[in-house]
Amino acid sequence: MTGALIILAVTVLTGLILYLTHRPDSASANEGDSPALSGSNDSDGEECCGLHAVCEKGLSPAEGPVYFDDEELDRFAGRQPDSYTESEVEEFREVLYTLLPSDIYPWGASLTRRDIALPSSLRDEWLMLVNG
Q1: What's residue 40's pLDDT?
Q2: Core vs surface per residue 46-70: b (16+ CB within 10 A) or e
Q3: Residue 9 and residue 13: Cα distance in Å, rounded?
């Protein structure tokens, strides 16, 4: 029983630390020294909105897309994140969970470059895997 309490306490503490260090309103985000928050077209001084994988890591959209054996997803270009059927979401999920851990973030960035919106229901899973 005490082992379970220790695990629970460590989990809660880890979650709290992650929350406090990754908040968008933290001091490092306001200082503008975080490359993860600065967009690639920062000419007007605006920070990245955080909704697109390309600006989250400061990658240039001019770098062409990279394919991860997922060419079949190109048919979803221009679709809204909430417009996918459950079977279409499963197609995305199948690709996501067959990627190497080092390919998860680049895959999301590639989708953005290809104008393919990740389904809303899968975005949280993708972010969780990216943050690791």
Answers
A1: 40
A2: eebeeebbbbbeebeeeeebeebeb
A3: 6
How far apart are the C-alpha atoms of 38 and 56, rounded to whole Å? 7
Rounded average pLDDT per 10-residue block, the chain, 132 residues:
81 74 52 39 47 51 75 92 93 93 91 92 90 81
- CA-closest candidate to residue 114, choices 48, 25, 52: 52
The angle that helices 86-96 and 120-131 make with each other, rounded to 10 degrees, is 10
| Residues constituting the chain | 132
Tokens of 44: 């007007």
